[in-house]
């Protein structure tokens, strides 16, 4: 079975699971799944940089928060313009990626981490201090979900869950096509060796810049969904917790895998919910999860499972091939032992 076939089968299984969840889970648990899907999109933006370029980013919350604030500010200025507000949020996140990208991609490794963190903290400071526009530490409460988008009522938890699922599946499909396109293959080549790709004539800077912009756009989509889900963008949207959580989701699920961000997001959101009901210090558990993942699952859960299962599958295939070929080989051996002349 080819990798493409496996991905399609898993995607359809995922659609079936998403369709069944509203009948199984309570409204509260369904809200957790909705939150996990929104954060999975944010983690997908980090996965594009880490899994396909080798750039670990703790600044994805910058695009996440910028888009959330843009939606709230535009909605307050223009009443009833839901699609326009969503478009403004995405354009703002895209613009942030376009403007900051040339500076960020000049660096790599720890320097990329630091500069992305600095960018995020600058925006956090602006959101916290500029009270006339951002509302300061109070944020911008009162953001109401549109009553109707594409025939789906977003006022109810179920309606918004369906909307988020549709957006998530669209982003996942687009992401899969992107990373399996010639563009995605070039990104993988850059991750392996920038020098080699330059020698082959590729404009490494341009490819990294475009990937950074796409990552910013995906992060912005997550921010828009988050803004409508909670209804109150605030400076915490730019916090290190959001960025580090997104990075941890990628590392936990598996960098460079299609569904790794989703797996990591579901684990983090539900573990956080369980632990926070016991103690307020759930960040300690988050840190321990990060350390354990790096130590015991360096390729993430999906990556580790894939590496473990691949030899097993190959072994089963070899055994099946051997059992299939044995009668033929035996017949061939018997034929060589038979005399060629019947009279002999």
From TrEMBL:
Polar residues biased stretches: 321-344
UniProt KW Transmembrane helix keyword: yes
Entry membrane topology: Multi-pass membrane protein
Coiled-coil boundaries: none
GO CC term (a single one): plasma membrane
Membrane-spanning segments: 7-25, 31-50, 57-75, 81-103, 110-130, 158-179, 206-229, 249-271, 283-305
Region (Disordered): 319-344
Keywords: Cell membrane, Membrane, Transmembrane, Transmembrane helix
Classification via Pfam families: BPD_transp_2
GO molecular function: branched-chain amino acid transmembrane transporter activity
Protein name: Amino acid/amide ABC transporter membrane protein 2, HAAT family
Organism of origin: Desulfomonile tiedjei (strain ATCC 49306 / DSM 6799 / DCB-1)
Taxon lineage: Bacteria, Pseudomonadati, Thermodesulfobacteriota, Desulfomonilia, Desulfomonilales
């Amino acid at each position: 079975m080819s990798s493409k076939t496996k991905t399609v089968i898993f995607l359809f299984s995922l659609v079936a699971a998403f369709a069944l969840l509203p009948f199984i889970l309570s409204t509260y648990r369904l809200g957790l799944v909705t939150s996990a899907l929104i954060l999975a999109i944010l983690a997908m933006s980090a996965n594009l940089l880490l899994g396909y370029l080798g750039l670990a980013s703790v600044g994805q919350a910058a695009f996440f928060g910028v888009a959330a604030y843009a939606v709230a500010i535009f909605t307050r200025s223009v009443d009833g313009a839901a699609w326009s507000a969503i478009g403004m949020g995405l354009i703002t996140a895209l613009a942030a990626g376009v403007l900051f990208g040339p500076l960020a991609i000049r660096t790599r490794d720890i320097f990329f981490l630091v500069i992305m963190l600095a960018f995020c903290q600058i925006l956090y400071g602006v959101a916290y201090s500029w009270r006339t526009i951002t509302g300061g530490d109070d944020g911008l409460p009162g953001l109401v979900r549109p009553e109707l988008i594409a025939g789906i009522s977003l006022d109810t938890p179920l309606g918004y869950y369906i909307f988020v699922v549709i957006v998530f599946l669209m982003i996942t499909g687009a992401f899969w096509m992107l990373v399996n396109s010639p563009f995605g293959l070039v990104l993988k080549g850059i991750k392996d060796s920038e020098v080699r790709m330059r020698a082959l004539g590729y404009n490494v800077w341009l490819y990294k810049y475009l990937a950074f912009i796409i990552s910013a756009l995906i992060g912005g989509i997550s921010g828009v969904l988050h803004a409508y889900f909670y209804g109150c963008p605030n400076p915490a949207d730019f916090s290190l917790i959001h960025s580090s959580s997104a990075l941890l989701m990628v590392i936990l699920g598996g960098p460079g895998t299609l569904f790794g961000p989703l797996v990591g997001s579901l684990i983090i959101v539900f573990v956080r919910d369980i632990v926070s009901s016991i103690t307020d210090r759930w960040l300690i558990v988050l840190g321990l999860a990060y350390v354990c993942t790096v130590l015991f699952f360096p390729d993430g859960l999906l990556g580790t499972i894939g590496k473990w299962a691949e030899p097993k599958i190959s072994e089963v295939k070899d055994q099946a091939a051997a059992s299939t070929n044995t009668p033929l080989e035996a017949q061939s051996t018997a034929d060589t032992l038979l005399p060629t002349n019947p009279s002999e």
